[in-house]
Amino acid sequence: MSQPTTPQEALLSWFAENQRDLPWRRHYKPYQIWISEIMLQQTQMDRVTIFFERWMQEFPDLKTLAAASEQQILKCWEGLGYYSRARNILKTAQILVSEYQGEIPDKRKLLLTLPGIGPYTAGAIASIAYNRDVPVVDANIERILARFLNIDLIPGSPEAKKLFWTRAEELLPAGQARNFNQALMELGALICRPKNPDCSACPLAPHCLALHHDLILERPVPKTGKKITPIDMATGILIHQGLLYIQQRLADDVWGSLWEFPGGRMKKNELPEETVVREFLEETEFEVQVESKITTTIHHYTRYRVTLHCFFVKLNQTDSDPVLHAAQDFRWVPFETLQEYAFPAGHRKLISFLKKRKEV
Questions:
Q1: What CATH number is given for 229-357 in this structure?
Q2: Collapsing DSSP states into helix, strand and coil, what is residue 305?
Q3: pLDDT, tens digit (0-9, with 9 covering 90-100), for 87-114
């Protein structure tokens, strides 16, 4: 058997032997490729495979998905974060059923018109699902190209974006986009890692300019570090006549349409207990009193570290109907039914804590 002679051949040969067994690779159904690519945005592979299997059990095809409610979608997506992705999936599914006869387009230009599908995702669907000769460029592939071609531009700049896409298109072997693009993604995940790249196992090592010039650790050119902003918040669980109060966030708000316990950001020099009382009054016009501290949860987002102080509160009035100022709906529910609603991460941690402690 002849040895690979070009970088493309070397990469494809390596991928054929080393690709991971992922559920969406078994049949390359366009629907499954689309869902997997949306899930993989901002989410690690090991977590996505679990959520993907659950999603396919709940929504096995495009028609079932398009007929689902937003709450069903959000509940199934719960835990993946960035919930606008889930809402865009539902919008796109409904468009595909009503305007595309339930088929996902194979043209990049058409894919780009659909909610939640940008240049990378459009390229991934066209190339992986349909094997169209379309390049893809994400952070992993930018890193590979920066090292392979010794590109000394900071990723994210307009000049860098244009160059990376141009080079990706130039390297793409005709008729092999499905495997070549996946091979690049796999190489970035397994070998050409951000830290501690395994150059000795890399199929592109003989052709890698950064390796040749001993510049692997300087490519891609480092970006300035993102500042993590700490945020202190407080929330309260209101129990009245054995039921818990929850409310649904406004659709266009952060974590839109998810359910929550009332609360918000602490003001300067404000105690967490004072925040809870104030937020309940502002959001619901409920007058409440803090009974006891439950716990404090910490959750990390891309640029924020949120510390959430959690309390039990009681109602200091006879009327149990809120006047909603920061929500679109509300419920009084037993603790056992909370699992039927989709909550933001911090509130899910609170619910899990209570479930383990059996305090409700």
A1: 3.90.79.10
A2: strand
A3: 999 999 999 999 999 999 999 999 999 9
